[in-house]
Amino acid sequence: MKNVVNLGNNARIAGTWKHCDGFSDTEFTFSIVGAELSVTAIDVTDGELPEIYDVSWNDAKLEVSFAALWSSGRLLKYRVSVGPNKDRLQATISAAWQELWERQ
Asked: HEC states along 7-19?
């Protein structure tokens, strides 16, 4: 599986998370079985499950990185860090998408 990676000694990232703005419809779940971390995501509005891949865990930074490809063609790369508050994570998101252009 491309969405599973070996996890070091910190399991605080485990659980289901979403943006705390109160408007986000995307939930991310980090599951740990043994020493393996699995990442899944869902758009709860329409049930879409993006393809998750390139999962990696940085034990020194307590950070997981992964990419999500949505059906819209949008590719989002995530870097999610464990912070000092046990009920919050910090996410850095980079976006890329494809457009079709036509001559004017």
From this structure: CCCCCCCCEEECC
- DSSP output for 73-97: S-EEEEEEEE-SSTT-EEEEEEEE-
CA distance 56 to 10: 14
Q: What is the pTM of this model?
A: 0.82
The predicted model gives 20-27 an average pLDDT of 89
Q: Residue 42 pLDDT more than 50?
A: yes
Residue indicated by tokens 């995307």: 26
Cα→Cα distances 8→33, 57, 102, Å: 12, 8, 49
Residue 10: count other Cβ atoms within 10 Å of its Cβ. Answer: 13
Phi then psi dihedrals of residue 96, to 5 deg: -145, 140
